[in-house]
């Protein structure tokens, strides 16, 4: 978690760009040792849960400190959109490669 995946055969480090490009592939062939391995997206579910929980917590907090519900909608929408963007950017860090 929180680090980019490595090849399970030769420990070659994959760059953010490569991991992102491989996100949708089920099987990946290592560019270094030419062996294939599987893409595990289990960590992405954990990431989604963390992002949703954090966003919900911040929004509940904002609802409590701000009394005018109409104005509260603005920061809540901004935070929710930002959370989705940050979550999507973090996806490659939550992917792991397995034999
Ligand atoms: Zn390899």
Structural summary, described in words:
By secondary structure, the protein is mainly α. It is built from three helices and three strands, in the order H-E-E-H-H-E. It has one domain. Helix 2 packs antiparallel against helix 3. The mean pLDDT is 92. Zinc ion binds next to loops.
- What oligomeric state do these chains adopt? single chain
Tally of individual domains:
1
- Main sheet summary: 3 strands, antiparallel
**Radius of gyration based on Cα positions:** 18 Å
Catalogue the unreliable spans.
Answer: none
- Average predicted local confidence, pLDDT: 92
Key attributes of the depicted protein:
99 residues; rod-shaped; binds zinc ion; mainly alpha
Topology:
Layout: H1 16-22, E1 27-29, E2 36-40, H2 42-65, H3 69-90, E3 96-98
The structure holds zinc ion.
Give a short overview.
The chain is built from 3 helices and 3 strands, in the order αββααβ. The protein is mainly alpha-helical. The two termini are 17 Å apart.
């Amino acid at each position: 978690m929180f680090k980019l995946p490595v090849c399970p055969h030769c420990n070659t480090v994959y760059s953010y760009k490569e991991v992102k490009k491989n996100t949708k592939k089920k099987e990946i062939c290592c560019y270094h040792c030419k062996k294939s391995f599987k893409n595990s997206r289990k960590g992405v579910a954990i990431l989604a849960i963390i992002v949703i929980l954090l966003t919900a917590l911040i929004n509940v907090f904002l609802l409590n400190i701000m009394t005018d519900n109409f104005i509260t909608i603005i920061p809540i929408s901004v935070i929710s959109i930002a959370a989705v963007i940050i979550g999507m950017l973090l996806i490659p860090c939550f992917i792991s490669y397995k034999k």
